[in-house]
Amino acid sequence: MERSANMGESIRNFVRKYILKNLAFKLVSLAIAVMLWWAVGRDQPIEIPMTVPLEFQHAPSNLEINSDYPFQALVTLRGPERLLQGLRPSEVHAILDLRGANPGERTFDLTAQDIRVPRNVNVVQIVPSQFHISFDRSSTRSVEVQPRVIGTLLSGYGITEVTADPASIIIVGPQRRVQAILTAMTDPVDATGVVGTATFTTHAYVADPLVRVQTPGPIHVTVNTGKNSGKPGQP
């Protein structure tokens, strides 16, 4: 029994000396160690894909891009989990340098050095890694505005005149595409029930997505109607 008592006393002394002594400090140290382990575990590197639009630099002022496919790349990024999970697409920039481009076709490489990313983030893959782009000289042209009128008129009335103000607009874009456009069309205006004169405010557009209106603005379409001998008409 004396031996058991001595052993029990030894255990109590061990607990007091090595476990209970400075217990608060040890608990704090343990908590810090657990938090560090958790943080390191969450900062394990991961990979995520992100679609980013191309940004063009040093584009010649006298040239227009004559290719209409989406200019964007799927970029695979590698970095700490916490950093990538909070990463926004606006923080990643895919830069394509158009310096030295001339009318015609040219292929550009998009490399990891062309992708601007935050610190501690690496670019693993880029798809596509090349862009084949067609260029044409920039051109402007004045085209007539063609009003588009829809709706059903009252019985005995018909359209006598339709005018647009301004009657023409300036378009700009790749030379060949600009030359192929004859008129600009307005958004439809509904003349249902118009008696006499009515003016509508709308906008004009061209069908080619690479040709744009130089100075966008409202178009005023005036519709004049009058009595006729026909049946109810449609504009």
Model description:
- The protein is of the alpha+beta class.
- It has 3 domains: 2-42; 45-128, RNA Polymerase Alpha Subunit, Chain A, domain 2 (Beta Complex); 138-227, RNA Polymerase Alpha Subunit, Chain A, domain 2.
- The chain is 21% helix and 44% strand.
- The chain has 4 helices and 17 strands.
- The strands form 4 sheets. Strands 2, 5, 8, 11, 12, 15 and 16 form a 7-stranded mixed β-sheet that branches.
Give the secondary structure arrangement, pairings included.
Layout: H1 2-20, H2 23-42, E1 45-57, E2 63-65, E3 72-80, H3 81-85, E4 93-97, E5 104-109, E6 115-116, E7 122-127, E8 130-146, E9 149-150, E10 157-165, E11 168-174, H4 175-180, E12 183-186, E13 189-190, E14 197-202, E15 204-205, E16 212-213, E17 219-227
Parallel strand pairs: 1-4, 8-12, 9-13
Antiparallel strand pairs: 1-3, 2-8, 3-7, 4-6, 5-8, 8-11, 10-17, 11-16, 12-15, 14-17
Short descriptors:
alpha+beta, 3 domains, RNA Polymerase Alpha Subunit, Chain A, domain 2, 235 residues, elongated, 4 helices, 5-stranded mixed sheet, single chain
